[in-house]
Hints:
The protein contains 14 helices and 15 strands. The chain is α/β, with parallel strands linked by helices. Keywords: Hydrolase, Metal-binding, Protease, Zinc.
Amino acid sequence: MKRLFLSLTLGVIVVAVVLVVRTLTFTSRQVAAEEGTPLVVDAEAASTRLAGALRLKTVAASEGQPADDAAFEALHAYLREHFPRVHAALKREPVGAHSVLYTWQGTDASLRPVLLMGHLDVVPVADGTESAWVHPPFSGVVVDGYVWGRGALDDKGSVLAQLEAVEALLAAGEQPRRTVLFAFGADEEVGGTQGAVAIAALLKERGVRLESVLDEGGVIMSGTVPGVSAPVALVGTSEKGFVSVELKVKGEGGHSSMPPPSTAVGVLARAVAKLEATPMPTRLAGGSRELFERVGPEMGFGMKLLFANLWLTEPLVVKQLAAKPTTNAAVRTTTAVTVFEGGVKDNVLPSGARAVVNFRILPGDSVAGVLEHVRETVDDARVELGTLAFQSEPSPVSPTDADSWRHLERSVRQVFPQAVVSPYLNVAATDSRHFVGLSDNVYRFFPVHLQREDLARIHGQDERISVSGYRDAVRFYAAYLRNTAR
């Protein structure tokens, strides 16, 4: 017994030493912040140009509603007018009805091009809610240090900031060694099939292989990662997939006074309850794992000990993440029942019932795997399964040990020297998913510093971007172009 006790004590000491040593050697992986070549940005003039673009109601076509062709045509005319150097120096190719591909030709044709992306369409504003905005959603005004309007953050702010950066670099007489492409779709909010998909197909047909892709995605956030006081620049290295599974049950109908043991609604309700009670398994991998490996060294000793030793603490970390909806999405394929239909009258048995369950798929899982999970979990032959038309597989995880990542990281640190740069898993869909076959290095990042409450403005009420934040976005894109295309 004494020998066993000594062995256990020695084991505890060894584990404790390993934990402490790993924690002490868990040091920062941030590149040194350096001052880049200064870019003078007239923030007020740039913000005024963005505001003008926000006045154009470029809502993409959806659910039988056509796009406002005149609004998109007006936007393209607006861009030609306000970015004359861009339109004189870059090749402009319309793609589909309203999307566009720009080419800034580099001096070294042996280098693979880089692609920057954004989208020109915006989500609509729900009828009857316009009066709740501080400033009307399509007024496009600069007030109190902010540019207000639908699309300021998603995603005209990104598109125009890129054009501002190129216009400024051209004015300074700069030209890239590496060719730079700019792909601006006009239907990202409804799947990108006529915009990004068509542009990706065009590049593939031409045999283009891209060095890297940069699209919208993560932002710079303060107070998002517990234990990290510095703002964190979240760069999406992958994004989740998407599939909506349709469940249908047929019933006999008839009068409710003589019901069967279970109606179509009852059968379907049990199936849905099983799915909610049996979520897909958790996994800390890819961008979600790298997030903690990158930000962990910036934390205090206790939190640093936790993330420096995931070999031991991972089950605890995952359990804590899975306990909250905001972080649960980072560690599993999520299950969300979004539609439930059945029955027409309180005294009539339903002749059928229908539900839709939306799954956001974690990299490493698949659409086929989700369907198998649903079949096994429901395990009821009375429930018919199908999928809705739109679906996408999760993207591969882009590397953080490639030059493309290092150029991006360096650019962030030049413009936002206080920010901690970290990979993360993008839980929403972007147009970049259509380009994963053209490059191994696909990143999702919009260079703007937001507070937590600002996230509700994206697709929500009072969308806006600060004048200073927009200026820094322009400066970032200029730095990124200099770093990645020289």
